[in-house]
Amino acid sequence: LGRTLDDLLLAANRVIETQGGLVHTRAGEIECEVSLPLAGLMATAPFADTVAGLDLLHEKLRAGGAGWRSPVFFVFWLGMEVAPRYRITDEGVIDTTTFETLDVIVR
């Protein structure tokens, strides 16, 4: 998660390094991360550590302007293949009504 292309690349590369998880970046720095190395979806760390990481991630997202009660849920929801309208896949962001790949970079 990040706001600039450089921050998104930093986050994506860190997720690759940790073999799954959530990474929040800002101004070229990793602010927090939650490692999910088991199939790229599940934590192997103790429950309390994982919850603390998610709480910090929520805090950082809210500080950045996310107004939802559980901002991380939105990230997980977009990756679900059954999500209506849009989904994130290995091919990019897909509009599921037209099956077109969407440009996600706004210039």
Sequence stretches where pLDDT stays below 50 over 5 or more residues: none
Structural class: alpha+beta
Percent range of helical residues:
25-40%
| C-alpha end-to-end distance | 18 Å
Q: Tally the beta strands.
A: 5
- In spatial order, strands of the major sheet run 3-4-5
Rg result: 14 Å
Q: SSE order in H/E notation?
A: HEEHHEEE
- The percent range for strand residues is 15-25%
The largest sheet is: 3 strands, antiparallel
Task: Give the overall shape.
Answer: globular
Helix count equals 3
Mean pLDDT: 86
Describe this protein's structure.
This protein is of the alpha+beta class. 37% of the residues lie in helices and 22% in strands. The chain is built from 3 helices and 5 strands, in the order αββααβββ. The strands form 2 sheets. It has a 3-stranded antiparallel β-sheet with strand order 3-4-5. Strands 1-2 form a two-stranded antiparallel sheet. The longest helix has 17 residues, at 47-63. The model has no long low-confidence stretch (mean pLDDT 86).
From the structure above, extract its key features.
107 residues, alpha+beta, 3-stranded antiparallel sheet, two-stranded antiparallel ribbon, 3 helices
Task: Describe what is shown at a glance.
This protein has 107 residues and is of the alpha+beta class. It has helices at residues 5-18, 47-63, 71-79, and strands at 21-26, 29-35, 86-89, 92-95, 100-102.
